[in-house]
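Progress note, sequence design subtask.
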């Protein structure tokens, strides 16, 4: 079935307007942003909303990437990056601010879909779709992001772990909207992302994001924190706290990275499907963790990373 069922449609003119519509129209209403996930699901009749509330015109209000330098000033924190939920893939890809602070975004966006999808698809739509293979959820998990959810009653902020409740299920209620993603900026850190896919721009067979924070210079540096987020190897994009615990206080050497790769491979829960066997995916989870941690550590130490080192092909 390639034709969606008939729907009522309204373009929201403000966040409050959208929230009011969702509250008035009730359970059968749903927001649409870029439409690149929702429309295919409607065509397949996997989603059957009766009313669509289009957020597209709110891009001026909710399409932004800013670095706020205020906040804790304890030598570690360097503020927070705020990204509006309607920020598009292309804007994440092209942002020089993100490339400098969180190169993981450019790594990931270089391997997400194709230009038509990247021109319309949004960060908010990607996170709210909550597909276990979704790349930006893995990126945000890796960076310890939090999500701002708004309703007519106010705003609440939840961690990525709280945001994803299961495959295709999030903490966003029926009359709520994800408005912003916040990412803490910590000194001495960097990040990387790598994905194995079957064709360019395809969904991940497995993908991994890594972030690492170092203290001390060059030879004497130690890992003050590290995070790894995997996609397509479990019911949700998965953060692995055991890796953070194992790496804190160690030197960022190959032994530490091998340990992280071993933990990633053993703690994920892939299934065998058309994209590959569970064993193969487990192997990839380990190998991608190794490669992304290596690159993140090199970037954090200010060492040059050759172009294409994260590309699988
Ligand atoms: C051909 C193709 C290839 C793709 N390849 C990849 C890939 O390689 N990697 C990858 O990660 N993704 C991929 N995608 C998916 C795509 O990147 C995202 O899922 C898509 O961009 C979602 O964003 P959207 O704005 O289009 O969301 P929509 O389709 O508009 O919405 C998706 C869901 O989120 C809800 N929603 C949207 N915005 C909000 C909000 N602000 N608040 C609350 N709920 C909201 C909607 O109600 C809906 O349930 C691909 C998609 C296509 C069509």
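Output:
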């Amino acid at each position: 079935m390639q034709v969606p069922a008939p729907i009522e449609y309204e373009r929201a003119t403000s966040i409050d307007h959208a929230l009011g519509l969702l509250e008035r129209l009730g359970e059968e209403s749903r927001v649409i942003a870029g439409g690149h996930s929702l429309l295919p699901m409607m065509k397949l009749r996997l989603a059957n909303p009766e009313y669509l509330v289009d957020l597209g015109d709110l891009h001026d209000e909710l399409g932004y990437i800013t670095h706020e330098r205020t906040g804790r000033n304890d030598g570690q924190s360097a503020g927070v990056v705020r990204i509006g939920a309607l920020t598009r893939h292309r804007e994440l890809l092209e942002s020089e601010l993100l490339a400098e602070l969180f190169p993981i975004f450019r790594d990931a966006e270089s391997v997400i879909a194709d230009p038509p999808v990247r021109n319309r698809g949004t960060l908010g739509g990607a996170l709210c779709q909550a597909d276990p293979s979704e790349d930006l959820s893995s990126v945000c998990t890796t960076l310890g992001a939090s999500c701002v959810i708004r309703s007519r009653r106010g705003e609440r902020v939840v961690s990525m772990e709280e945001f994803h409740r299961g495959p295709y299920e999030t903490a966003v209620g029926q009359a709520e909207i994800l408005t912003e993603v916040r990412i803490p900026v910590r000194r001495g850190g960097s990040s990387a992302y790598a994905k194995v896919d079957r064709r360019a721009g395809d969904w991940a067979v497995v993908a991994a994001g890594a972030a690492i924070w170092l203290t001390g210079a060059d030879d004497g540096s130690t890992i003050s924190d590290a995070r790894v987020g995997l996609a397509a190897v479990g019911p949700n994009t998965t953060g692995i706290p055991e890796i953070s615990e194992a790496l804190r206080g160690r030197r960022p050497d190959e032994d530490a990275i091998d340990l992280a790769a071993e933990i990633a491979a053993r703690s994920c829960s892939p299934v065998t499907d058309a994209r590959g066997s569970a064993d193969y995916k487990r192997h990839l989870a380990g190998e991608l963790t190794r490669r992304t941690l290596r690159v993140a550590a090199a970037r954090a130490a200010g060492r040059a990373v050759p172009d294409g080192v994260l590309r699988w092909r």
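The chain has three domains: 8-59, 60-185, 188-300. Work on this subtask will continue into the next period as scheduled.
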